[in-house]
Design goal:
It is a single chain. The chain has 14 helices and seven strands. About 40% of the residues lie in helices and about 15% in strands. By secondary structure, it is an alpha+beta fold. β1 and β2 form a beta hairpin. Strands 1, 2, 3, 4, 5, 6 and 7 form a seven-stranded mixed sheet that branches. The protein binds a DNA duplex through α3, α4, α7, α9 and α10. Pfam families: EndIII_4Fe-2S (PF10576), HHH (PF00633), HhH-GPD (PF00730), NUDIX_4 (PF14815). It catalyses: Hydrolyzes free adenine bases from 7,8-dihydro-8-oxoguanine:adenine mismatched double-stranded DNA, leaving an apurinic site.
Length: about 350
DNA sequence: AAGGCGGGGTG
DNA sequence: CACCCAGCCTT
């Protein structure tokens, strides 16, 4: 039996936590080490909200949304009582809209049961809470001995251990390694410290090993090319899809629709559009008969394809009967996902 | 295990 | 252009 790789890292928490006391990022949802030391704990609602919001999202992009949500819905009960369309609208532009749908589901389940569960296993059962988020909430909000392994932590440990194997398998090694290192007394600070190390020191392209508190433990550093890790599979090229958005004006109103809950941009307010296809622009099927004018094109990149989006505009004297139509004041349009926001802005010119 | 699912910032 | 980011869910 080979010795576990984490055996070499037993001194890591003792080096990392003192560093964190000096260099923790002061984020709006955090309770810093000095305040934790005198017994303060973060509000579980804010911890949960920020964790969901920051999934696959940069802190600068997500932070304004965190402020907007906590101001408008200060508690999980307040959020649970919100209207679906208000929450989806407030989430517009943040992306991964299934998060917003699950956020509401989760808020309502939590409110119904009288508060957040405190263990990783129970948190994991709630919608939108996966392995990372369950560990993060349990550790940060409830002082549970749980690990929070996000992209930062994956990168840090890929380097500490100089992992060269298949990435999906190595991520499991990392998860077990981190789990074994979580200190009993300060699991939340340990989770935040690892993330901060990855975000501010052990960065993707130019890790700053000279200021790293655990560089002496790092196998990749010893090899000399830490930036070579993590070794991930090559990404496949994104195909291009083509689509058309329709901006139909009737006096001061514009035609919007709501997309079905499942699938791309699910549950979001949108401009009418057909399915987007590869190979070129298809025949147009506008939502109403009118004098349609080709306004131009916007481009947008999604996770697994790029979109060339042609924008058509027309003006009608009266509102045609259109099932599902959401007629909206043209100057008060809000809550559109970015791709439709781009298209609509083009049509306003 | 693999693929769907946003958006913006950075080099 | 590519890669990355406080990942989760479905199939």
């Amino acid at each position: 039996m080979a010795p576990a790789k984490h055996r070499d890292l037993n001194s890591l928490p003792g080096k990392l936590l003192p560093w964190f006391e000096r260099h923790a990022r002061d984020l709006p949802w955090r309770t810093l080490p000095a305040d934790r030391a005198v017994g303060e704990r973060p509000d579980p609602y804010r911890v949960w909200l920020c964790e969901i919001m920051m999934q696959q999202t940069t802190i600068p992009h997500g932070t304004p949304y965190f402020h907007a949500f906590t101001e408008r819905w200060p508690s999980v009960e307040a959020l649970a009582a919100a209207k679906d369309e208000d929450v989806m609208s407030a989430w517009a532009g943040l992306g991964y809209y299934a998060r917003a749908r699950n956020l509401l589901k989760c808020a309502r389940e939590v409110t119904a049961r009288g508060g957040f569960p405190e263990t990783e296993a129970e948190l994991r059962k709630l919608p939108g809470i996966g392995p990372y988020t369950a560990g993060a909430i349990a550790a940060i909000a409830f002082d549970q001995k749980a690990a929070a392994v996000d992209g930062n932590v994956d990168r840090v440990f890929a380097r500490l251990l100089a992992l060269k194997g298949e990435w999906a398998a190595e991520k499991k090694v990392i998860a077990e390694t981190v789990r074994a290192l979580v200190p009993e007394d300060r699991p939340g600070e340990f989770a935040e410290a690892l993330m901060d190390l990855g975000a501010t020191v052990c960065t993707p392209t130019k890790p700053n090993c000279l200021i790293c508190p655990v560089s002496d433990l790092c196998a990749a550093r010893a090899e000399g090319e830490p930036e070579r890790y993590p070794i991930k599979p090559a990404k496949v090229a994104k195909p291009v899809r083509y689509g058309t958005a329709y901006v139909l004006r009737v006096k001061d109103q514009v035609l919007l629709v709501r997309r079905p809950d499942k699938g791309l941009l699910g549950g979001m307010l949108a401009l009418p559009t057909e399915d987007w296809v590869e190979g070129g622009f298809a025949e147009t099927r506008p939502p109403a008969t009118a004098e349609w004018e080709d306004i131009g094109e916007v481009r947008h990149v999604f996770t697994h394809f790029a979109l060339r989006f042609r924008v058509m505009r027309a003006e009608a004297a009266r509102k045609p009967k259109i099932p599902g139509a959401i007629w909206t004041n043209a100057n008060a349009v809000k809550g559109l996902p970015s791709v439709f926001e781009k298209a609509y802005k083009l049509a306003l010119k």
